[in-house]
């Protein structure tokens, strides 16, 4: 059975398997990415594209072999009703096989690129679920603090040392904390639903995340090194660069027979378009790497700041509660301190999440084998052009 047949069978049967019993599953980050890879239709399609482009190479070589016999014949410059012209014959011989081989090279490397993208998407979904899960815990603690403050206010009212207004204010804080908790619980359900979808799990599956939402370390690489690696590893830059080289050959062939004509100028225009697209792609890649790097560094610095802010907020809440219990403070002061603690805890969670996601995006752009040095000698069209990756 060919890979194409296997892939079609997988696509046909995938929906039925996904609809099976849910149950429970405990997943580390690594296990989640493995499940995402195992269920990814994008990976299957990328693998099918390799088989398609292998056939394309064979067809291009066969066509070149046929056309080569026509190169010495007296043919018109352009193809017409009577048959192919000189330009199309030379294109089939001199450009077609190289284009087909480059397409195969790109599709082969794209399988790994798609896998890395699937892994990165699964990581980000895992981090989003972790963030939502931890935010629920913070809101639960916030509700507990509000309920404790309401209890103290009622005790004070019964003892005649607190006004009813303080009890009413505490009841409002409890209601607000409960509403905020319900919102976070809904966000958690949505985040876990998105994670199940990324991993190809049934909707009723209950997931336990075993890895914490913990801050990691900054990469050892500098920004300049990251930019160089990203350029060397970019499959899209390689593809565009090779497209420019192939189009230069097209221009050369057309100029042999129709110099200065509309078709010649049209091919020159196409070459310029491709060169502009290549330059734009380089600029966009550099912008993406810089953005991910700066987001990562900024989030990492914020984590340490929020650690100190949490310590300060916890101490402030402790002091405000002591003052309240001693009859020196008000419920408003306690509620304010509790709200500040909840806010900085949520901000720290978001900073950790931002760091992990930006690190994942950064690694996706920067890591991987250099594309420009991987064309098998004697197998592809001319290798990456001089200066590629510079």
UniProtKB/TrEMBL annotation:
Pfam families: OEP. Keywords: Cell outer membrane, Coiled coil, Membrane, Transmembrane, Transmembrane beta strand, Transport. One of its GO terms (cellular component) is cell outer membrane. Its main location: membrane. One of its GO terms (molecular function) is efflux transmembrane transporter activity. Residues 271-323 form a coiled coil. Belongs to the outer membrane factor (OMF) (TC 1.B.17) family. The keyword Transmembrane applies. It comes from the Bacteria. The keyword Transmembrane applies. It is found in: Cell outer membrane. Gene3D superfamilies: Outer membrane efflux proteins (OEP). This is TolC family protein.
């Amino acid at each position: 059975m060919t890979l194409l047949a296997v892939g079609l069978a997988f696509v046909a049967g995938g929906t039925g398997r996904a609809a099976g019993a849910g149950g429970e599953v405990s997943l580390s980050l690594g296990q989640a990415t493995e499940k995402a890879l195992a269920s990814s239709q994008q990976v299957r399609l990328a693998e099918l594209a390799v088989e398609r482009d292998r056939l394309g190479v064979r067809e291009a070589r066969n066509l070149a072999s046929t056309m080569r016999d026509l190169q010495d014949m007296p043919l018109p410059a352009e193809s017409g009703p009577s048959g192919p012209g000189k330009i199309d014959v030379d294109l089939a011989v001199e450009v077609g096989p190289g284009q087909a081989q480059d397409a195969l090279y790109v599709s082969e490397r794209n399988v790994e690129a798609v896998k890395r993208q699937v892994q990165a998407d699964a990581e980000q979904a895992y981090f989003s679920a972790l963030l939502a899960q931890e935010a629920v815990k913070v809101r639960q603690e916030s509700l507990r603090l509000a309920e404790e403050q309401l209890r103290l206010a009622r005790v004070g009212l019964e003892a005649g040392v607190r006004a009813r207004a303080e009890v009413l204010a505490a009841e409002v804080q409890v209601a607000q904390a409960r509403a905020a908790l319900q919102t976070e619980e809904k966000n958690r359900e949505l985040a876990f639903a998105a994670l199940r979808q990324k991993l190809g799990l049934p909707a009723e599956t209950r997931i336990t995340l075993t890895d914490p939402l913990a801050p990691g370390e900054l990469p050892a690489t500098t920004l300049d090194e990251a930019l160089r690696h990203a350029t060397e590893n970019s499959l899209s830059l390689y593809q565009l660069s090779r497209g420019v080289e192939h189009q230069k050959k097209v221009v050369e062939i057309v100029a042999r027979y129709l110099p200065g004509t509309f078709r010649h100028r049209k091919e020159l225009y196409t070459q310029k378009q491709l060169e502009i697209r290549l330059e734009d792609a380089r600029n966009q890649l550099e912008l993406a790497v810089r953005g991910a790097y700066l987001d990562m560094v900024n989030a990492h610095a914020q984590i340490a700041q929020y650690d100190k802010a949490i310590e300060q907020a916890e101490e402030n809440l402790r002091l405000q509660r002591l003052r309240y219990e001693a009859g020196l403070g008000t419920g408003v002061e306690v509620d304010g301190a509790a709200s500040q603690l909840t806010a900085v805890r949520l901000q720290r969670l978001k900073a950790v999440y931002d760091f992990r996601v930006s690190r994942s995006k950064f690694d996706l752009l920067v890591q991987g084998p250099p594309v420009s040095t991987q064309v098998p000698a004697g197998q592809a069209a001319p290798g990456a052009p001089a200066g590629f990756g510079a």
